[in-house]
Structures are given as C-alpha cells and as structure tokens.
Design a protein that fits this description.
This protein has 12 helices and 14 strands. It is of the alpha/beta class and 377 residues long. It folds into 2 domains: 202 residues, Glycogen Phosphorylase B (Rossmann fold, 3-Layer(aba) Sandwich); 157 residues, 3-Layer(aba) Sandwich (Rossmann fold), CATH 3.40.50. This is Glycosyltransferase family 4 protein.
Length: 377
C-alpha cells in the first residue's frame, strides 16, 4: 500500500503528532509499505526542507513546508508531491492547533481537497474541540463550537470512509455529532532501548520492600494538579516508612515546573530537573524509575503520549490531575495501569501494581492497515 501522511510539523522531538506520524510511518515501511510524510504548517523551519528522517534504521521521505511560506505555494508544492507519489490513501493526522495558531483552520478542508486530486482520505483525530468540560467557561464553549463547526465541515469535505481516534471520549463526541469513528490505541513515541535493562531498575513487584522510590514526570505539566497535597503525603510517607523518594522532571514541562519544584522542595523532598533529553536517555530514565506521574485529566489519558511511554517501559502510573469532568452523556475509559490520586490515598498509589498493559507499535500499525483495507478496498 502507498500512503501519504499529512500533519502540521515534523520537527523531531518538538511535535508529538509529528513524532507519532514518523514512528508509525517507519513501522509501516518495516511491514513492506511505501510511505511519504508532508508537514504543511511547520513552525520550526523558515523555508522548504526535503530530506529523509530515520527511526531504528528505517528512513522515510519527508517534505516540510514552513508556515511562513504563502499558503498558495504550500498547496502547490503539496499537490505536486502527492501527484508524483500517487498514494492509495492520504491520511490527515489532525490537531486543530497544528494548522492554525488559534486552533480554527476554517479553510483546511477546502485547501486539502485542492491538493488531494480525487484521492481517498483517511482522518486521524488526535484532538477535537475545547469546551467539553462540564465546568468550561462561556469563552471556551463558544470557541469549542467554532472548532466543532470547522471539524464537521472538514469531515464533510474530505468524505473519509475511515475516521480514527485514540480516545474513547473523542469517539463519544463524534458519535453524538453523527460521525462514526474507530478506536485506534496510542503507542509510545519512546521505544524501549534494551541496552539499559538491568542497570538499576527497581523491582516493580516488591514496592513495599524497597528503600527508595523514584517518580518520573515526563513532558508537559497541566495546570491545577494538586501537587501541594501530593508532596505533603509523599513527605509523610517518607517519615513513616523510612524510604527515600525522588522526583525527576524530564522534557519541556512548561510554566507549571516551578510550582512543582517549589512544592516538592518545600516538603524536604529530592527533585531532579533534567529538561529535554534524547529518546535513548529518556528510555534509560524510565527504566531506572519506580513509578510514573501524569497530570492529564483521567478522561483524556488515552491520548497521553507520556502515559503510553511509561506503560511501555513497565511503570505503574499515578494520575495527579485537577478535577475535569466531561459533559453529561459522554463516555470515556481510564486506561489500565493508572491509579488516580486523591487526598489521603498516597500509600495506596505506591502499592498499586496492577497488570500493566502494553501497546506495541507493530500491533497498532497492523490494525491501522486492516482498518484501511476494510473500509477502502
């Protein structure tokens, strides 16, 4: 099969959807398919870049178009690339803010029809619209209605026979809007590098017996998480159980990093701020950790790349997040392997070690291909 993937950016390590698309593309190439990647709104470059990108020794051709280039030029170049490659399927990897700074790319559907030239379209929704929280502000609801209108228009224009999403909450939202979609699990963007196995890993099956616990929080930190309470209970656990607890912050954590650092240190706990690291180093840190921490609201955990990476590396995960409740009549699932922190249950979090699920990329790629064959051929 020949597939062209279109996304916003393909700067390695700077765009989660771009990293996802590149890794999926390389896995599909491993399985014998021909793949091309196009980034049509890349904010990390200033011109046109055409080269090969690589994962695990697999190379994929990439065309990156800077967002500062005139849209007519980007569309013309994209169309020429698609016409030359002549794919069986064009897959749009969609996040609203990848294609417009305010998340409302109202002309995207019409623009993509111009470059698609009669090809079959597939849609993957990594995100939908804002304002679906039951406590959303009026501004968020109005903004979300604009995004929803734009997304439904995009679906109508592209006439995709298959729509994927990696979050059951989003599937419920689409279904309520009369759109059928198929759930495709999220895989980790951080592969497990086996060269680090056994070099300091803590025994996940005997957390009660260990004398040190290493938490890792990887990636962006959402606001509103109850870090003060979590840190207080961690300090209490240290005093009562005579263990050493360390928190490692990895990646671009955002504005909330200082709050977490100050809250943790104020309780006399150890913290390491490691910042951005190459994926091999991130894999090593994950393998040397005891438990993961995520701040994504439970209803949206299925779309968390950080969670996927932690589970892939065998870590039980604690969700430390603000209260975020979807609108009524929307269903969602909390992934296995995640324990939800609340006041007073820190000890239960520490002793949580349920059977941890793993979602190998090979299996996701196989489902992706089988779904394409079912809906298009």
């Amino acid at each position: 099969m020949k597939i062209t993937f279109i996304c916003g950016s393909l700067e390695p390590g700077c765009d989660g959807v771009g990293d996802y698309t590149r890794r999926l593309a390389c896995e599909l190439i491993k399985q014998g398919h021909s793949i091309a990647l196009i980034a049509i709104h890349d904010r990390q470059i200033f011109s046109l870049v055409e080269n090969m990108q690589e994962i695990d020794g697999v190379h994929v051709p990439v065309l990156r178009l800077a967002s500062i280039l005139p849209i007519k030029s980007r569309l013309s170049i994209t169309k020429k690339s698609i016409d030359f490659f002549n794919p069986d399927i064009i897959s749009l990897q969609f996040v609203p803010y990848s294609f417009h700074p305010k998340g409302i790319p109202v002309h995207l559907g019409r623009q993509l029809i111009q470059v698609g030239n009669g090809h079959k379209w597939h849609l993957m929704f990594h995100e939908l619209w804002v304002g679906i929280n039951s406590h959303s502000t009026v501004k968020e609801v109005l903004w979300g209605n604009l995004q929803k209108f734009m997304i439904l228009y995009l679906i109508k224009k592209l006439k995709a026979s298959l729509i994927h999403t990696q979050c059951h909450l989003y599937q419920s939202l689409l279904n309520r809007s009369g759109i059928n979609s198929v759930y495709l699990p999220l895989f980790s963007n951080i592969p497990v590098f086996n060269s680090f196995k056994g070099k300091g890993n803590l025994d996940q099956d005997s957390l009660r017996k260990i004398d040190r616990i290493c938490f890792i929080l990887f990636g962006g930190i959402h606001s509103g998480a109850p870090i003060e309470q979590f840190a207080k209970e961690a300090a209490k656990y240290v005093r009562e159980h005579k263990v050493l607890i360390t928190l490692k912050l990895v990646g671009r954590n955002g504005k909330e990093r200082e709050k977490w650092k100050n809250s943790w240190k104020s309780e006399g706990l150890l913290i390491e701020i490691l910042g951005e690291q190459p994926i091999e180093k991130i894999s090593e840190i994950l393998q040397r950790s005891t438990m993961g921490i995520v701040t994504t609201p439970p209803a949206l955990l299925e779309k968390s790349g950080s969670l996927a990476a932690m589970l892939e590396h065998g870590l039980p995960v604690i969700s430390v997040s603000k209260k975020w409740i979807p609108e009524r009549n929307l269903s969602y699932r909390i992934p296995k392997g995640v324990f939800l922190f609340s006041d007073g249950n820190f000890s239960k979090c520490i002793n949580y070690n349920n059977n941890l699920p793993k979602t190998p990329i090979s299996g996701v790629a196989s489902q992706f291909l089988n779904d394409l064959k079912t809906y298009y051929f």
